[in-house]
Structure formats: C-alpha cells, structure tokens
Amino acid sequence: MKSTFAGLDLGTGEFAEGVAQALVRVEDLLLAELSSGDEILTEAATHLAKAGGKRFRPMFALLASHFGPDPEGTDVITAATVVEMIHLATLYHDDVMDDAPLRRGALSANARWNNSIAILAGDFLFARASRLVSTLGPDSVRIIAETFAELVTGQMRETVGARGGDPVEHYLKVVWEKTGSLIAAAGRFGAMTSGADAERVEALSRIGDIVGVAFQVSDDIIDIASVTDDSGKTPGTDLREGVHTLPVLYALESSDASRLRELLVDAETGEPRPLTEDAEVAEALQLLVASEGMDRARQRLGRMADEAHAELARLPEGPARDAFTSLVNYTVDRVG
Q: May I ask which residue range the UniProt record assigns to the signal sequence (predicted)?
C-alpha cells in the first residue's frame, strides 16, 4: 500500500516502512523528554505534543537522513526530535502573543491554564531541546542557537512591521525567519547526523529554506482562495487579524485597488486594518480572488518550486528524492 504523509508520497515497501518506524521512535523520545518534570510541568509541556500535528519538521529531517550512510542512527532520531520540540515551543509562545483559544482542535495552553503557564511550558521545551541537542556536539548546538535567533528575530520583525521598507520583501523575510529557518535546520540536521557529505547537507538546508517559505505562501493563497472551494477552511482569517499576506500585498500594489485599500488599510496611520464585520471580509475576499495579486502570488510560488526542483536535481535518485519531489509538487498543486 502506498503511504502518503502531509503531502509526502513515501511510495511503498521498505523505505516507507523505515520512515514510519523512525517517526514512532521520534514520538517516543519526544514524550519521554517532556515527561521528566513535576506533574504540572509534564502536563503542560506534553499538552500540544499529545494534541497531535503533522510532525512535518521531524519527517523532513528523517527524509534528509536518507542522503547519508546511516539514516537509522540514534543521532538522526535525536535531531528530528529536537526540531519538533523547538517547533512546539514556538507554538506555546505564539498562542500567548495571539491570545489564541484553540490549537490543533484543543484548548491552547494559555486558555486551559494561563499565559504564565503557557510561556513557562514553552521555555521548558526550549530547555529540553537544548539539553538534547548538546548530545550531538558543538556544531549542532551552534546551529540550534542560530535557529533560535532567527525565530525570535522573525517574530520581532513581524511585530514591529515594515517601517517604510518594501512590505513584500519584509513579509517574505519574516516568513523565512519564522518558518523556513527551522525547516532548513531540519534538513541540515537530518543529513548531518546520518553522515551525509557537506554538499548534500547544504542542498538539503536550501531545500528546507525554499519549502518552508513556499508552504506559507501557499497557505496565504488558500486563506483567500478557499472562499471559492470546498476545502473546509474558514477563509479570511488573516484579514480578520489585520495580517497582510503575499497575495494581499501584491493586490494592494495594483492601480485599481482603491476600494481594497479602503477596506484593508487605516486611512490615518497607513497600517493594516483588521476586519471585524463579516460583510467587509466577504467583500475583501471577492476583490482579492479576482485580483492580479493572486496571480502574482501563484507565479512567485511557482518560481519557488522551480528553485526547489533545481536543488533536488543535485541529489542522487531514490525514494527520498522522490518523496521530496512529491512534497514540492503538492505545495503548488494544493492552491489549485
């Protein structure tokens, strides 16, 4: 039977089974590491891990490990677990900053307990990730420290805003720092810990960069385009939060976007204006769906896919490359 995971076509047979077993090992290590404290700390720290999730980042690391000679090594499992722990930690902090009531269909930690507990749970995950990565050696510690810095910088950059700079480039920079940097680290870690050579390590890191940004851009498009399909997503979430994503920024650059600017930009401050009325959201979505901005965003996504395919061509053929190729194609195909 063919195995498909979060857009990754893993094919059939020994390779797919090996990846699935490795992911089980990651899950076991993740819960073991987060269950080492007092009862209240364990409950809060494992809250999001037990809520599920795609486990996309550890999967990315596991696939990258197949470009080295030891993809089943213990260090590979450790590295994949570290990147997921960091990702989970950022979710705790994001939910506090966004005052989010739900995460993965369950109460967020800040809603179940309070902001202080959620922040401390995220801090605990960062601490456990730091302890775990120290077993991989100084180079791994440095990479994670640099990734920590990128994640924080991206959040700070998003909070401060473009400050008169190019809003499109600002947004893409934020997306890379908040999303692409950790997926790039997953690719680098998976390849490094399996013993891959430096050229392959760098290629897999670059693929992580590209795929991380591309996935966010495709989500941006879907947040608008889902008004016209049956995806089950609630369209316009970003508009309600006053977040201007790539298709919105492109649309606002158009010469015929006066009504869209009235809806989405505060006339006095020039800052994004959150939409609170359903009628305004519906009108903005209709304008965006028909806008040049959506076409430009899709074109940019296509160029990212081309870049990823070019990097993949540097890697040897095999089921791991096939899986990454299916992921890149899925990233583009999912937006329609």
A: none
Tokens of 8: 């990754």
Distance CA 201, CA 172 (A): 24
- Could you tell me which of 184, 213, 207 has the C-alpha nearest to residue 314? 207
Query: Are 22 and 166 in the same domain?
Result: yes
- Residue recorded with tokens 């899950």: 27
Separation between Cα atoms, residue 40 and residue 262, nearest integer Å: 48
**Residue 271: closest CA among 261, 280, 281:** 261
| Domain shared by 178 and 209, yes or no | no
Q: Provide φ and ψ at 102, rounded to 5°.
A: -130, 150
Q: Residue 192 pairs with which residues in a beta bridge?
A: none
Closest CA to 44 of 81, 89, 87, 78: 89
How many domains does the chain contain in total? 2
pTM of the model: 0.91
Structure tokens at 227: 């008004």
Find the helix or strand (DSSP H, E) in which 107 lies.
Answer: strand 106-107
Same domain, 244 and 317: yes
Same domain, 99 and 210: no
How far is the C-alpha of 268 from the C-alpha of 12, rounded, in Å?
58
Give the angle 82-86-92 at the CA atoms, nearest 5°.
Answer: 145
- pLDDT tens by residue, 154-178: 999 998 888 888 999 999 999 999 9
**146 in the same domain as 293:** no
Q: How high is the pLDDT of residue 230?
A: 45
Q: Which neighbouring-strand residues pair with 103?
A: 106
